[in-house]
Amino acid sequence: MSVKEESDSVRWQIVLRTTLLFGEERAIANREEIDAAAEAIDRLKRLRPRDFASLDGEVRT
Amino acid sequence: MDRVASTVSDILDGIRETDGDVQAWVRIDEDAVQQQAQLIDGRLASGEDLPLAGLTVGIKDIIDVGGLPTAAGFAPFEDCAAERDAPVVARLRRAGALIVGKTVTTQFASSDPSKTKNPWNLERTPGGSSAGSAAAVSAHHVDLALGTQTGGSVLRPSAYCGIIGFKPGFGWTSTEGVVPFAASLDTIGIHSRTVVNAARAYDVMARPGLPRAGTVEPIGPPRLAIWADALANAGERMRDGVIDGLEALANDGAVIQHTVAPISFNNFIAIHTIVSRSEAAAAHAELIFKHPDEYQPKVRSMVETGLALPADVYVRAQRMREQLRQETVDLWSPFDAIAIPTSQSVAPDLSTTGNHSLQAVATLLGLPSITLPIGFNPDYLPIGVQLIGTHPEADVKLLRVARWVEQHMPRLPRPPHGVQQQKKQ
Questions:
Q1: What is the DSSP string of B17-81?
Q2: Which of B88, B182, B210, B264 has CA 20 to 30 A from B287's CA?
């Protein structure tokens, strides 16, 4: 998955969860916050904490 | 002996005269203030040593004061009086401080603008979230006020209002009796007009085991470092103003060098975004479903989005944060403090409380930070310089460095929309 696709996917997951919890209207109202959160997650995922225990694809495949 | 009681009517008159414009206060119980003052006078007369005798204090309306509601800017909380003082308030009271009342907060100490105006210009924000606390100190309504900082809510309003704002290191005092927003970030802070008064209040409130500031002997000339990546986040005029201020300090002997951080400034902010939203969601997980329409737009959006974030990113953010704290302390330890602009710009208009980015890194890392006024922009709005301590428990050292800086900066006059005359002593 490209970086852009992954980033879009993170954003889409947050939109879906927001819609499930609060409805579509709120997902639209929260667009700015959702964009900021998705961008933050994208940045975070490029930072790798030392000794972070995860079974991500880069390590195991 | 009515040393304190005799000042009360002047204090309350001053607030009445100017708070119609500034709107810093939610509630002042005038009878209770008078009774407190008489009590303090009685304690002084009986020979008690009261380190804060008669110092007037405002309390941000997310911190409990016994008998008064803690509304947090949220209508459903307006009728719920706190049973007792939060420990920080109790400590101030025990030390002889005169608790004047509750100051305006943005809703849940978040970023929707409040009704409070900036005493330097009524068309400008005092910042947030500790809007009323900063404005009340700036307007000379009180000597001190308590605020809280989760992103930049003590330092930014203090800078916008031309006063000192001190956020000690994380965990310096109890946050019991404080409406939470993001538990691993929320820190009580002090607004004041002098470093000495901030230190006096710190000494009374700090948890046992932490060093005390005492007479706040200045450390100087200090060795300060500019963090260029953060400096670049400020507007050009703000950058120039702060650089001019630091050059003036260098002329007085301060050593000004440059430093870096383990990751980019924007990556720090990304981690703060994830931690603050996730923890705000945890704090509001039930309330948001009970009273969704009572929430103001920005805080509602923040909480709802936080509830939609996956848990793994929060865990990863916290791990990264822990690692960065140590790496940053290692990098910055050769310096007495890091110097950057407190805010991106001077106080903006009333549609916003301003941007928290420049204040949020110290909050994220749990490092102490303090803002001091260093002058004005051409529109006569205050500019603040932020000093960040280089160790989480360097509160006292930072106060002592700030004292040296304060002694080498011109003192700001009173703002045009504050109390103009000296109160009687």
A1: HHHHHH--EEE--HHHHHHHHHHHHHHHHTT---TTTT-EEEEETTB--TTSB--TT-GGGTT-B
A2: B88
